[in-house]
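[recover] target loaded
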């Protein structure tokens, strides 16, 4: 299980629940949204977390790439790159942003995701397929499922 926490509203209740799940060894990591939660991934408290998955952090891709490179225990996902209802024309730009993150941070640091219902599964696939054109079959496997298996402790 990967937990999530709204630190601005429910910090203490959320931390209590996350600590309980971690003590039961039911928690593989947490997912944070650094774009609006104001979490400093350079902070010693966050570095102590074994596995921390962060959203692609649109539009702060430079920060995401730097964080992924600096911390072996941090991954990002490709969710939330597009509002499918209003941003169809942005699919090529979203694909290019994702391609850049994959290229500069490495395909071993990025997981497939959608953010449904905001970003549809079909649009997430379109973006990913365009972004992954230059990548090998093995790198595509990492993105689509291998990284999630590694993060969650599943079989490869």
């Amino acid at each position: 299980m990967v937990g999530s926490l709204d630190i601005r509203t429910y910090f203490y209740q959320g931390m209590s629940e996350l600590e309980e799940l971690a003590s039961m060894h039911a928690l593989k990591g947490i997912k944070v949204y650094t774009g609006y939660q104001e979490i400093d991934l350079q902070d010693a408290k966050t570095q102590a977390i074994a596995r921390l998955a962060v959203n692609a952090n649109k539009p702060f891709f430079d920060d995401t790439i730097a964080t992924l490179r600096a911390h072996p225990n941090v991954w990002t996902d490709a969710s939330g790159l597009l509002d499918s209802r209003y941003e169809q024309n942005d699919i090529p730009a979203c694909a290019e942003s994702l391609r850049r993150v994959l290229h500069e941070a490495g395909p071993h640091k990025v997981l497939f995701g959608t953010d449904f219902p905001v970003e549809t599964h079909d649009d997430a696939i379109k973006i990913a397929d365009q972004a992954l054109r230059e990548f090998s079959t093995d790198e595509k496997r990492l993105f689509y499922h291998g990284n999630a298996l590694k993060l969650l402790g599943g079989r490869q």
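[recover] notes: The chain is about 45% helix and 10% strand.
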